[in-house]
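Subject: Interface between my chains keeps coming out wrong

I've been trying for a while to get a sensible model of this assembly. When I model each chain on its own everything looks fine, but I need the whole thing in one frame so I can look at the contacts. Pasting all components below, labels as-is. Any help appreciated, I'm running out of ideas.
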Amino acid sequence: MRQLIYSFVFLFAGFGFTSQVAAETWYVKKSATKLQAAAKARSKVLAKLNKGTPVDVLGKSGKFYKVSAGGETGWIFRFKLTKVAPSGSGGDGDVLGALGGQQQIAARESAYGSSIRGLSPVSEEHAIKKGASPASIESVKEMERYKIDDEALDKFLEEGRLGAYAD
Amino acid sequence: MKTKFFILCFLGAFVWAIPSHSFDFGKILKEVEKSSRPPEKTQPSKAEEPKPTQSPAQSSEQSSGQSGGLIGLGDSLGIFDKKTSKILQQSVNTLKSLQPIAYEEEKAIGGRLAVEVFNRYGGAYDDPELLRYINLVGQAVADVSSRSDIDYHFAILNTEFPNAFATPGGYVFVSIGLLRMIENEAELAGVLAHEVAHIARKHALQTLERSRSLQGVSSLTLTVMDKDPGLFDKLIDEVSNVLFTKGLDKKLEFEADKYGREFAYRTGYYPGALKRFIQKLGASKKNQGSIFSSTHPTSRERYNLLQKSSSRYKKASLYPTLGKRFKVAIKR
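Reply #2:
Try treating it as a single job with all components included. I did that and got this:
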């Protein structure tokens, strides 16, 4: 009987050994994504990662993924990561190459990213030509200028127990 | 003897476990990710499945606007009858219009349409505190969307009609009339996330890329638009007609509902809030005859579709609606 019990113990030891996770590469969706010391929103921020940074996902706890990035291991709120390699980032050259003309578009999209600011001159000229009111044009410009900083958003999420702060 | 037995057991277990029970954490994560997405995709994600691109030969043929190339040759040699040639030519033209519109051009189109939204629907509503609050909720849902790497801009329209719009490139609008019908932050998050989903899934652009205005255009760049103001005119007219009069395809609205609910849920809000608000909107007299009702599927259809897939949100009632915070923000 005891031998049987030991057999089971060894059997599960074997199972446990093979369940060592195989890391998979994911990517950071947006710049200034926090890599944290623990799977908690209030834990220490180890680094802020740029958009497109590849990370090896090592595990999961609640809404956080344990990742390794640039030699550092930490936790990231899971919805800040994507499985899809961002266009133009390192490591996806072959894929883009295979897509031919798509590569050009992807590279342009990546190069501009969120750096395009202000109402495009084409849009403004067209709006003026079509008789749009200057107030409407100014409202769009104001809309584009309006920014919520990361700290304010973080505080808002914390107060509402939302996002990474959700229970 | 015992020792040998244990060693054999261990080796046996090890050999058995490797092929039959080792598992890939990556695969599990894939499943988790899959389960965190709306289950039924009505359109493939453009980011994940790029559309085919045309060859230079196709491009030059198309720019001539005539039935040239192999199809024309086939036609002249009598290989294809005229009807077949026409069908083939139409197919080629359709393929040529599929080149995705890049972000800079998307922003130019969306920015122009944003001016139009202010122009048509009462201009900007003046309440800096409320605007800040709308931007905070909007940014929170946009940050967990499937397209969080672009800038989103949120504005309040000064009209009592219940309206909400999204124009390509990240512009989201909600009317003060609609805000007055909302009861809590989770409903607001659902509405804003629905609009963010239209942008993230590039719904208006998808419609535009299939349009006739772009037939004969292999790549829509700002230079092309600048050189051909007539083309930009046509594009704006076409998208305006879709967004402000005809409405997007029903499937795209349903998709925005599902993705919107998902984004609000990811942010941590009660996922049933959008469904509740849609029901309320359907029952409201204010909504009857409004642009919102004429450009969207019926509330009943939208409610039923959300209801069908709501079982995937377990313990939904435990998620907050944040009614108090909303009421303070809207000064109710």
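Reply #3:
Confirming on my end. Chain A is about 40% helix and 20% strand.
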